[in-house]
Amino acid sequence: MSTPGFVHLDEVDSTNSEARHRAMADEPGPLWISAARQTAGRGRRGRRWDTAAGNLAATLLLRPEAPPAMAAQLSFAAALAVADTAQHFAPQAAVTVKWPNDVLGEGRKLAGILLESGNDCGFWLAIGIGMNLAHFPDGTEFPATSLAALGAAAPAPDAALGVLAGRFAHWHAIWREHGFAVLREAWLSRADHLGGPIRARLPQEEQSGVFEGIDASGALLLGQGPGRVRAISAAEVFW
């Protein structure tokens, strides 16, 4: 990945939407887009993502050379980069990752990652990251937290983004040189509830079992009895 550019906006509908607009206008990337305020920030499955003042909302726009299916593996690089960033500012906290694309602090949601892509004017990938630095929302289905709630001095969003960009470049380079296997092992070393009971909520059903890990494509492996392991490519996970 070449050295990325950075653009900061006071207000935007969402940094991922801004990345899409710029991709369609032939922005070559890599480009980090951050915003102080999002009016229509979103998470997975179209859920609203609120960005309180002092939190980080950023999207990295890339033009990956890899095919779309492989480029989706960069969600794991992003999760590792966010986890490294959180650990940098909160070195005493237990920072883990939750499949498919969340980062936890002491078992509570600290950050979320949303990948979107398209083939308008060539293939592009937007890696959206929302990270709770100073504040976190109440009343969420999966409990949330922030760096400040973990006892850390909440960094300014631009300081957090500086660390995040460096750590993503690190994991991106490893992925390009060594492939997904190294990312997979690093991700599993931080995985929360590995070997423990989980619930996987799919569009039409909910399945329970043991979190056995992820396979070579990044799919969740759900153990459901002796010799029975189900690979799940998309779901929400709870425990």
Q: Taking all residues together, what is the mean pLDDT?
A: 94
Helical content band = 25-40%
Q: Could you name the CATH homologous superfamily of the largest domain?
A: Bira Bifunctional Protein, Domain 2
List low-confidence stretches: none
Strand content: 25-35%
Can you tell me the number of structural domains?
2
Give the overall shape, derived from the CA principal axes. globular
Q: Briefly note the CATH topology name of the largest domain.
A: BirA Bifunctional Protein, domain 2
Order of helices and strands: EHEEHHEEEEHHEEEEE
Tally of individual helices:
5
CATH class group of the largest domain = Alpha Beta
CATH architecture group name of the largest domain: 2-Layer Sandwich
Question: Which strand order spans the largest sheet, edge to edge or round the barrel?
Answer: 1-2-3-7-6-5-4
Taking the sheet with the most strands, its summary is: 7 strands, mixed
State the end-to-end distance. Answer: 36 Å
Radius of gyration: 17 Å
How many individual β-strands? Answer: 12
Q: Structural class, please?
A: alpha+beta
Architecture overview:
There is one protein chain. By secondary structure, the chain is α+β, with helices and mostly antiparallel strands. The chain folds into 2 domains: 5-190, Bira Bifunctional Protein, Domain 2 (BirA Bifunctional Protein, domain 2, 2-Layer Sandwich); 197-238, SH3 type barrels (Roll). Helix content is 26%, strand content 31%. It contains 5 helices and 12 strands. The strands form 2 sheets. It has a 7-stranded mixed β-sheet with strand order 1-2-3-7-6-5-4, with helices on both faces. A 5-stranded antiparallel β-sheet has the order 11-10-9-8-12, with no helix packed on it. Strand 9 and strand 10 form a beta hairpin. The protein is globular. The termini are far apart. 40% of the residues are buried. The model has no long low-confidence stretch (mean pLDDT 94).
